[in-house]
């Protein structure tokens, strides 16, 4: 026969702390989406930017949905622990023949949170420099109109969200979960399994946030590199002593690369 040793008040406090940790996850998500409010159109709408933007939009929506699921799951876990504490307190009060024990109040369930959304990364961002429209048809290049500053700001927001998500879930639940494990409960296995699922979900989200941030930083660097190359070319083309020569050599370099036989 299993021996039960439960402190309802301690169990209720631990459950409330788990609920608070879950609600903190919601705050982390709200802070993230607030920081991303200015990121609309950051990838631009040139062919490469639109492709990157579509991939980013899909990934961001998936991670934000996972954040909401993890937040709600952790809050539900805390609510369940509190209800368990209430039930034990009722049993304890009924077994007190002196009538001095009073059960804990019935805990109110935590409301579920809907997934937040982020603005689309696709849109017209940075404008092409003066003179580019005249030169572009002759050199066959496209000005990437993404905004590298917005991309880096969004990367910082995602990176910070990953860090804060780890703090809010992984670290903030350590204490209350130890208090729950200290109770001798027949429900211990179910509680442990639910907590393990929440931990795995949060760990995956932290990694996804870092991956998104890295991708945004890399695309920002790519845009800056292309912009710098184009601006350098424009500066040389606009020089009356070298302009015609630069266009001629650029076009013929591209032609030689196209005509070069492919190696197996």
UniProtKB/TrEMBL annotation:
Residues 132-231 form the Outer membrane channel protein CpnT-like N-terminal domain. Pfam families: WXG100_2. It comes from the Bacteria. This is Outer membrane channel protein CpnT-like N-terminal domain-containing protein. It comes from Mycobacterium gastri. The lineage of its organism: Bacteria, Bacillati, Actinomycetota, Actinomycetes, Mycobacteriales.
